[in-house]
């Protein structure tokens, strides 16, 4: 089963990459107020149901894919 | 009087690049060093462990995030669990944070630039096994070289856990509260971004790093006496 994990820097956490992107976009003339840079992880997971896949991926996020101190994550299961 | 030689393990991960320097420096300061490959399930009988700098597993995902699950790190976690002395330098610090042996996490430098410079670092505590040869408040000059050294502290980090701080105005990476090195609550696991192993021989620059590593060798020797 295919799934996607979005990992984002938590609100309030300094994101120098996002700041650099924001400033570059402004220099290009785009009306950008803020940019935050995270990470996308596409997975193909063995699971009998979407619910089972989601539970498994949550454990992956807690153990490895995200650092809960600085990052939040969102899981999309489908396809 | 001849002193006994304590044994110190230096871990080697794929992508470690300061393991040889750490081994050289610790040997020069009187330790018997054993290099331990990351795939080893067990540590040899040692009195302390050093996690060296580098880019373990390519720093993929987050620095230190993959290395923490290596077999040798399970052994280090068990060693630390029994009160063993563990020093993490740079990438070693990042690994200890990811492994939960130290609080906080190291993030990309605020400047987004790799920094390589000798920096003044203040010793906040001289009563840890890693700083007994230093004076409280002493300023050491030790090189840093990293792209991800911006320390983010958990909200409940006790100031007593801060062992090293960048001198005022010399913070090279945007670390919160100018933190350069922290120790665990029990005081036997320390991580720092500056590289003491690169500042041991005065021929090559500042020799202040020797104070940190010699303190560790002293503490390891005491452990050896206690074990004997």
What is the structure about, briefly put?
The relative contact order of chain A is 0.35. Chain A has 79 residues and is of the alpha+beta class. Chain A has helices at residues 16-27, 50-65; strands spanning 2-9, 39-44, 71-77.
CATH class of chain A: Alpha Beta
Q: What separation lies between the terminal Cα atoms of chain A?
A: 7 Å
Tell me the number of strands of chain B: 11
Domain count of chain B: 1
**Multimer state:** heterodimer
- Work out the radius of gyration of chain A: 16 Å
Question: Using only CA atoms, what is the Rg of chain B?
Answer: 16 Å
User: What fraction of the residues of chain A are assigned to beta strands by DSSP?
Assistant: 25-35%
CATH top level class name of chain B = Alpha Beta
Number of helix segments of chain B? 4
Which segments of chain A are poorly predicted (pLDDT under 50) over 5 or more consecutive residues? none
Provide a count of the helices of chain A.
2
Distance between the termini of chain B: 18 Å
CATH superfamily of chain A: Phosphoribosylformylglycinamidine synthase subunit PurS
CATH H-level superfamily title of chain B? Class I glutamine amidotransferase (GATase) domain
Spell out the key features of this protein:
heterodimer, A: 79 residues, alpha+beta, Mth169, Chain: A, 3-stranded antiparallel sheet, 2 helices, 35% helix, B: 228 residues, alpha/beta, Rossmann fold, 9-stranded mixed sheet, two-stranded antiparallel ribbon, 4 helices, 21% helix, globular
Describe this structure in words.
Chain A has 79 residues and is of the alpha+beta class. Chain A has two helices and three strands. The model of chain A has no long low-confidence stretch (mean pLDDT 95). With 228 residues, chain B is α/β, with parallel strands linked by helices. Chain B has one domain (7-227): Rossmann fold, CATH 3.40.50. Chain B is built from four helices and eleven strands; from the N terminus they run βαββαβαβββββββα. In chain B, helix 1 (19-28) links the parallel strand 1 and strand 2 (32-37). The longest helix of chain B has 19 residues, at 209-227. Chains A and B meet through helix 1 of A and loops of B.
